[in-house]
């Protein structure tokens, strides 16, 4: 059993929750006729994750805490873990040498603890959002400045922080070490030194390496793997590797994610998804949403398939406060709550993936397409061939096709269906043998009719009450 964060306030009986049945089927619209709703996952995201021995968390940031409706969700049982999104970073905590300020981070830590949520500390050693003075140190002073920073910050939060991203983003895309101030001063040994220093300051905190673009196999994740393996073999106190997972629908899903997580776990390390979001080029549309939902589901599935994957953290939960639009021009819509703090359908996808249930039924894509072809016509009579195509995403079981004649025509006799006419309105119900029209399939039928004067084709058809094209 992996050492996960201690659980909180969970009184739910999971068996009972899972036994709850889904809502009754609806039969009104064409596309809903045959949908069998998947068993809905029940419970908040963290409750569902907890039932799988994981946590589900979110990042947050201090300016957002004045938004009461936001805080209500943040501190709800949706989230069992909170990452301090900015204010534990060096530029905030030690803006000037030896001048420490933990006030903002303390606020978030206190809020989380008050609500039984564990805290992921982010981050101690990173090239970015670093205080300017560090970069201008003579290289001989970098190590002591780094150790002092780590010791002071980790000691301050000792006993309150579940895990630390000790070193963030050490690698370039090609797997070489980033030439930041730490590497330039100490070579790759800065990593081991940082972990040892953090461990000395809080021996119970879980210590992580963290990076982006290491979700799948590749040069960068190989470099991370080799580093983690080497740290382990040197006895460096490393507990886990964090996979940021800032994904984008236009770049493809890292399909080797599960395999990649597993190889890190096989080193005897925990793994965690630490900053998940899935952005898209705006405007949002149904195809991008569908792809995004698949990405989220895939990430959840990869984590659940690896027993040492301890949890998933999204990088804030609402588009209202996502970092994406500010950093990736023209992109956004990356998170499961929208900018009005309403849950998107994506939320349900994540919940069902966490609950291990089948995906929710696709939103009813409805549609039928009717062709009405007069195949022959004489002085007062005519013959029509009709096809009814099901353009929806699920089969139609039992159908009624209706139309209204525009110029007083009447049906004399029909085939492949039961024809009735009342005034100018014709309704045709299926015959026993063509009751089912599969998604993408069609039914053919026809009739002999009579007319006088003009024989204008009807324009509006409905199938089971839904308008067809
Ligand atoms: C981001 C924050 O969300 C932004 O508010 C800030 O302006 C920049 O940093 N990888 C990380 C995080 O490890 O710390 C970054 O957070 C997002 C990318």
In short:
The protein has 469 residues and is of the alpha/beta class.
The CATH class name of the largest domain reads Alpha Beta
In the predicted model, the low-confidence regions spanning at least 5 consecutive residues are: 10-40
Beta fraction: 15-25%
Secondary structure: number of strands: 21
Q: Specify the structural class.
A: alpha/beta
Q: What is bound: which ligands? A: (3S,4R)-3-hydroxy-2-oxopiperidin-4-yl beta-D-xylopyranoside
Q: Report the end-to-end length measured between terminal Cα atoms.
A: 57 Å
Average of pLDDT = 90
How many domains? The number is: 2
Strand order of the largest sheet: 1-2-3-4-5-6-8-9
* Largest pleated sheet: 8 strands, parallel, barrel
**What does the radius of gyration come to?**
30 Å
CATH fold topology of the largest domain:
TIM Barrel
How would you describe the oligomerization state of the chains in this entry? Answer: single chain
CATH superfamily of the largest domain: Glycosidases
């Amino acid at each position: 059993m992996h050492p996960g964060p201690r659980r909180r306030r969970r009184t739910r009986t999971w068996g009972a929750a899972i036994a709850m049945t889904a809502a009754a089927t609806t039969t009104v619209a064409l596309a809903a006729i045959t949908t069998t709703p998947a068993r809905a996952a029940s419970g908040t995201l963290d409750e569902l994750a907890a039932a799988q021995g994981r946590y589900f968390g979110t990042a947050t940031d201090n300016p957002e805490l004045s938004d009461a409706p936001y805080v209500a969700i943040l501190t709800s049982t949706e989230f069992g873990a909170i990452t301090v999104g900015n204010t534990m970073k060096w530029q905030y905590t030690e803006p000037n040498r030896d001048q420490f300020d933990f006030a903002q981070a303390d606020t978030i830590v206190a809020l989380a603890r008050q609500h039984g949520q564990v805290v992921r500390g982010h981050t101690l050693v990173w090239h970015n959002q670093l205080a300017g003075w560090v970069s201008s140190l003579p290289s001989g002073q970098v190590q002591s400045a780094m150790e002092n920073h780590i010791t002071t910050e980790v000691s301050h939060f000792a006993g309150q922080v579940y895990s630390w991203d000790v070193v963030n983003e050490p690698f370039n895309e090609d797997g070489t070490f980033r030439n930041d101030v730490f590497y330039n001063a100490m070579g790759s040994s800065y990593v081991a030194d940082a972990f040892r220093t953090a461990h000395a300051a809080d021996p119970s905190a879980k210590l992580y390496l963290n990076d982006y673009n290491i979700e799948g196999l590749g040069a960068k994740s190989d470099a991370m793997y080799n580093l983690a393996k080497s740290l382990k073999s040197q006895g460096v106190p490393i507990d886990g590797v964090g996979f940021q997972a800032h994904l984008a629908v236009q770049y493809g899903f890292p399909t080797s994610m599960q395999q990649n997580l597993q190889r890190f776990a096989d080193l005897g390390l925990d793994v965690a998804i630490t900053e998940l979001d899935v952005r898209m080029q705006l405007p949002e549309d149904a195809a991008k949403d569908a792809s995004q939902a698949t990405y989220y589901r895939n990430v959840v599935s990869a984590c659940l398939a690896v027993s040492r994957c301890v949890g998933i953290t999204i990088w804030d939960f609402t588009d209202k406060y996502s970092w994406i639009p500010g950093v990736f021009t023209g992109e956004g819509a990356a998170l499961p709550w929208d900018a009005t703090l309403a849950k998107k359908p994506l939320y349900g996808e994540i919940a069902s993936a966490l609950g291990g249930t089948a995906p929710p039924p696709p939103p009813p894509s409805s549609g039928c397409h009717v062709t009405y072809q007069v195949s022959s016509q004489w002085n007062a009579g005519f013959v029509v061939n009709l096809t009814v195509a099901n353009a929806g995403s699920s089969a139609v079981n039992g159908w009624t096709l209706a139309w209204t004649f525009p110029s007083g025509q009447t049906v004399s006799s029909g085939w492949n269906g039961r024809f009735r006419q009342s005034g100018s309105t014709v309704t045709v119900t299926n015959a026993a043998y063509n009751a089912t029209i599969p998604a993408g399939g069609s039914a053919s039928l026809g009739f002999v009719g009579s007319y006088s004067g003009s024989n204008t084709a009807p324009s509006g058809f409905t199938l089971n009450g839904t308008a067809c094209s």
